[in-house]
Amino acid sequence: MQMTKLIAWALALSGAFAALPAAAQTPPDAAAPQAAPPSEAALGEFIVTGHKEEKLPRIAILPSLSADLEDVIVRSVVRRDIELTGMFDIISDSKAPPGLYSFDDPVDVPAWQNLGAEAIVKVAARPQAGTKVQVLGLAYFLNVGKDPVFQKKIVVDKADVRVTAHRITDALLGALTGRPGGFASQLAFAARWTKNQRIFRLDADGQGLEPLTDAAEFAVAPTWGPNGVLFYASSRDYAPLKLFSMAGKTVTPVKLPYTTSVYGVAFNKDYSKMAVAVAEDGKSSIYVGLADGSGMTKASGSELATRPVFSPTGKLAWIGGDPNHGSQRVYIDGKAVSPSGFGASGPAFCDTEDGVRLVYSVSVGNDNRDLVMSDDRGHGIVRLTQGQGSNTYPACSPDGRLLAFFSTRKGQPGIYMMSLKRFTTQLLTSKLGESLHWAALPPPPAQ
Q1: What residue spans define the domains of the chain?
Q2: How far is Cα 306 from Cα 233, in angstroms, rounded to an integer?
């Protein structure tokens, strides 16, 4: 096989052609697609959004009147995060009652209560000596009294102000809902950059986009590993794709017992196991072993297997296909769980408040793909998107409330974020790519 064909095949196997028609996604040795498309009734009902009025908890996020840049950053980050959750009706800044809103100024609880606020959030920041910044977070539930239900002051380095604001959001969401948020996190994905494909990272609120891999590399399949280390497969000068890790700016080859291309990598919840998809005998297979790449044993039974991903409970899913099952399907622990006849790609697990959910993309014709969701056995399938272009590579937030994915929907293509509680969708950034992965940041040093 020519090396250019090997690279193209690697992309097809890893799901990089998910925006193309089902036939174009099918690797050379997979079964031929069905002559007629199956009924989309197998994909379940579409969860309609935006057509039913729903009363959301009305909250106030106090404005920032400080000239300190740190204060503006903290307040804007927290407000953006809370907006992205889709869980609250946030009172407009234009309705803020007159008063003082500096770091030490008390909150005028009755004034906000008169505006219908059910909860009040105050965040602020102010410079300290040297490069230090003091950050404040407060939350009030007006039905439980006038004392804050959450209050925290911490001192951090100026360089950590944005990530600290995300951590404050997560703590505030924990106080307001009983389940901490997942905004102290980061996304990684692969996207074209001139002639090659590079790995990019992104903050959970759509800020901080930056390329991580060298422009001379062809890089695919990024995954966040232990301690925020990035793992990905990369090729130079048409060589086979090899696995690498990146800690900070340090790139290290990962030792694996394979000389063929690596198409994907995944870790289980506690990072004790690693799964890899590798080329093997003209096909591809999933192997599972220890996190350092040792002790690998074959886990897949389908002739083609790629895109491994572990569930929070330790189940292993992948995309596979063989002549007995037709087009590519989602397999969990060796059993096909996605509907037959729909080319599937990009499986992801979401640890939601209602249990673990499996989300993946399916081909629905006319070069379009939709996202569907089921339980972690493939039962109870519902559609998350319909008639909105090609929607691919779902990735779930660490708290299980939000789903990020790529969409080519008309007028505003990019990465979208969907609330898995309200099923509302917002544009996060206009960047398109493939192989989206979302993971929590390492915890901060003890204060």
Answers
A1: 3-30+185-440, 58-177
A2: 13
Topology match between the domains 3-30+185-440 and 58-177: no
The 3-state DSSP class for residue 199 equals strand
| E strand spans, 48-102 | 58-61, 89-90
| pLDDT higher than 50, residue 209 | yes
Question: What's the pLDDT tens digit per position in 26-81?
Answer: 333 333 343 455 778 888 887 755 444 568 899 999 998 898 999 999 999 999 99
Percentage of residues of the chain with pLDDT beyond 90: 76
Q: CA-CA distance, 25 to 21, in Å (whole number)? A: 7
Residue 397 · residue 204 · CB < 8 Å: yes
For the cut 60, the answer to whether the pLDDT of residue 3 exceeds it is no
- Residue 151 three-state SS: strand
Tokens of 124: 């602020």
Q: What is the mean pLDDT of residues 186-206?
A: 95
Mean pLDDT score of the chain: 88
Give the span between the Cα atoms of 116 and 11, in whole angstroms: 52
How remote is the C-alpha of 144 from its chain's centroid? 35
**Nearest partner of 57 among 176, 210, 199, 220, judged by Cα:** 176
CB-facing half-sphere around the CA of 243: CA atoms within 13 A: 27
Please name the residue that has the structure tokens 């106030």: 60
Q: Annotate 255-274 with DSSP letters as a single string.
A: P-S-SS-EEEEEE-TTS-EE
In Å, what is the CA distance from 149 to each residue of 67, 71, 119, 176? 28, 22, 10, 9
Q: What are phi and psi of 338, to 5 degrees?
A: -85, 160
Phi, psi of 247 (to 5 degrees): -115, 110
CB neighbour class for 249 (10 Å; exposed up to 12, middle 13-18, buried from 19): exposed
How far apart, in Å, do the first and last CA atoms of the chain sit? 56
pLDDT digits (tens, 9 = 90+) for 7-18: 444 445 444 333
Selecting from 3.40.50.10070, 3.40.50.300, 3.40.630.30, 3.60.21.10, what CATH number does the domain 58-177 have?
3.40.50.10070
Of 359, 379, 436, give the one whose Cα is nearest residue 405.
436
User: Of 396, 340, 380, 382, nearest to 363 (Cα)?
Assistant: 340
pLDDT tens digits along 323-374:
555 579 999 999 999 998 899 999 999 999 999 999 999 999 888 999 999 9
CATH class given for the domain over 3-30+185-440 = mainly beta
User: Count of CB atoms within 10 A of residue 59's CB?
Assistant: 24
